[in-house]
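Before relying on records like the one below, remember that each one covers exactly one chain. Contacts with other chains, cofactors or solvent are not represented anywhere in the record.
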Amino acid sequence: MSELFDEEPDQPTPARSGGGRGRALVITVAVLIVGFFLLTAFASVYTDRMWYRDVGYGQVFSTLLWTRVGLFLVFGALMGAAVAVAMYVAYRFRPMFRIAGGDASVERYRDAVTPVRGWLLAGVSIVVGLFAGTSALGQWRTYLMWRNAEPFGTDDPYFGRDIGFYIFQLPWWHFVVDFVMAVAIVALIATVLVHYLYGGIRLQVRNDRLSGAAQVQISVILGTFVLAKAADYYLDRYDLVTDDHSLFTGMNYTAENAVLPARNILLGVALICAILFFLNIWRRSWQLPSVGLALLALSSILLGMIWPAIVQSFQVKPSEADKEASYIQANIDATRDAYDVSDVEIESYSGAPPDGASAEEVLPQLDKTPVVDSKQVRDTFEQLQQPRVYYSVGSVLDVDRYTIDGEDQPLVLGAREMDQSGLNPSDQNWSNLHTVYTHGEGVIAAYANQVSAEEGDGRMVWAEGISSDTTDDAIVSENALGEFEERIYFGESSPSYSIVGKSSEGADDVELGLADTDTDEGDTRTTYDGESGVDVGSTFSQLMYAIKFGEPNFLLSGRVNGNSRLLYDRDPVTRVEKVAPWLTVDSDPYPAVVDGKIQWIVDGYTTTDRYPNSQRESFESMIEDSLQEDTGLQTIPTDEINYMRSAVKATVDAYDGTVTLYEWDEEDPILQTWMKVFPDTVQPKSEISEELRDHLRYPEDLFKVQRYQLASYHVTGAGEFYQGSDRWEVPQDPNATTSFQPPYRMFTDVGDGEEWSLTSVFVPRGKGNLASFVSANSDANSSDFGQLKLLEMTTTGVNGPGLIANEMSNNDDVRAALRPYEQSSNPPVYGNVLTVPVDDGLMYLQPVYAVRSGGTTSSFRILQFVIVSYGEQVGIGRNLSLAMDAALGDGDGSSPDPDPGSGDGDQGGGQGDGDQGDGDQGGGQGDGGQGGNQTVEEQIDQLLAEANDAFDAAEQAQADGDTVEWARQVEIAQDKVQQAAELAGKQEESTEPAEGEE
């Protein structure tokens, strides 16, 4: 029995042991969770460091890291220390004896908190410090610009401050003042809670609710807050030059005559109120501080809100044009300077061609006019120049110029990139996706101003592509771009990451290269040997990247070896944004063959929304058009800007990913500021090679922003601007009426000789007629590079793109030519409507494409016709010269051959000799121009013969396994038979006797 009683005290032990194991499990799980997050954070920082060191911008990483760490620690420590001191002082000067009238529930909380008050103080301080430090992290741009500010050298007209003050200094001081107010509020809350908990504040009594210590501490904190508010009122005065109003951005009459005096008064009231709170340290009476605080609140309502509204309603509105005139003028001047449109050249332009113009006079001016739409021919590039389904080009191709055979030629081109979505799902395993299908190869380029002159079927003339031996559907000018490294490891559609490098020198190549189409050897194998690539040969690096990408194969796969390197963040825009996070990057990088390499050229902008008196607008809205997909704006909290400069030209090597930044705008203070922050990261302008300069162009997004502003700010007088009688707008794209027409690159002659330009047009707001034509010199070798020229129409009633497109589509000849396509299962596709200045007039040009299809996976567009409008004349032909012939009356006015398979490229369906048949009879069919000198029987016989030839060609194509060619020839044959039947039917009708005749 004694043994049993001796064991009874030990019975609860298992319960205690279970509780201990539970606590240990909770602690273990907590430690593991914290450890996981710490390891993930460390892996992120470590891999970022590796990436920046690999691309040669380790200094950027170090500057960003230590700036963020410094801001986090300083502002986190300030917030945490302020709250800790406030809590400690409140506890230190608590009432030493229990005072009657206390709340019993509060006493219970006090008893519970007292044993852990030290831990509670530390915990609260750390938490609020973490929040404050995290908030300060995002201010690294503001801080670095403040520390390294460069002056603009121009003062604003109202405060006489350098513009750099508003862009570099004012935002930082706003943050500091707001932070002080936030510290005061958090410290006040902590102080009140501690005093209430320990009896310094008693809400249950009528008198002496606050102890002396509580009054002093609360007075000091409130005085600090109100003093910071006074500083805020002082800084808010300068914000008046960047405030948005209904008419414009910047200082206006009400702001200068009501809001500014009100803020000066509120500044004084806030200072007096702060002094009253500080005096309360000795007076210990809330009467005067309360009166001061009430006066401040009342003044902020009366002076800050009601009085400006009265001035606006009763002084400004009745005579707004006069009251706001000087402020509108300041806005016009600042906006034109901020968007760099103050020096635009404005010329008067007739817009109407001279009488009696002939095709022979006009055509020599159009030799380099593009007839190939870079958007519409993407599928043609895909089908005719992609040997495998896992290669692709961009959705919208780029337009550039190259010197070929001693002449500048406009080219439509795209990089042949890796597109892993084309792989069969069963082949999309980790090894294939990340070690085999690693890169694209080559550039595909076609002449923008040429189509086949041999077949007349709208085939493009390739300047660079696959050898002509591989397909009957391509005409290739071999090596027109010269010899260059063709492999593309860094591009717009490159894989997320690839692991490259052989395990040993004698190991087999595993990366799949472009098929050798000139031999029977098939696909080639290669290995990346560029200089870039993060070394992942060590187990530690493999572990870090396994954590970063959430992929254990970094540790498990034999494809990751001691010589492996990792390629990631491969999009050109992403790479530029990472090495220059202060830039706003153009949304359309473009490839160019430069110095034996494919280089992605990226335009970088400096932007701000703090330029005084300049009009602030949404960046996304300003660059929107029918080709725009994503802005990629990264540098400001919203997408609104009111200043923009083309500051940097960047290149990204498509093979090894090398990023190089070149200074372009040498006078931009924002760029100079960032070059001080990150020294040696931007190369001087003089380092740009001659061959690279040949391919630099005027930035597209900047041009869109400038044309958006010029729609209103071509007006330079305040009165006319206020009336709004001369507002323009960018016309809607005739082929996509929900968005603006995009600008186009072409050779133009607007009075100073031929130049490579970026062009667009304006129409009056809400109207369809043309207001002006705008162009920007896009030749980086020209002394006039970037010069904007505005041709204002002096002739009323010059039709804009929308009206012209409608006029073209309703023309009888155009309708006759396109009728066979519109009645087929593949209706015609209309390309862009180009506007080209010619001889003081404007010529409009629109390509028309037909879809050749051998199935859903092999459809592509072929240029079939070109429609032109010059003056009041509209013409359509197989090419530009034939269309001009038809428009200017060099032929007999009959419609061109509607047959999609007939006609010679030079003659546009038999129109070359001027003998054209009747449009209703499909005149002009066949080579050499038939119909005018042939009987109907001869035309029918020839059509049937051509149909028979087409059927024979279709059979041969089927035997060769060429489905696309088979479908094309069958369609040609069917059209020939249909035309012959129509001619026979009309002949029969014409031979029938009329009513009453025998």
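The first strand starts at residue 345 and ends at 349.
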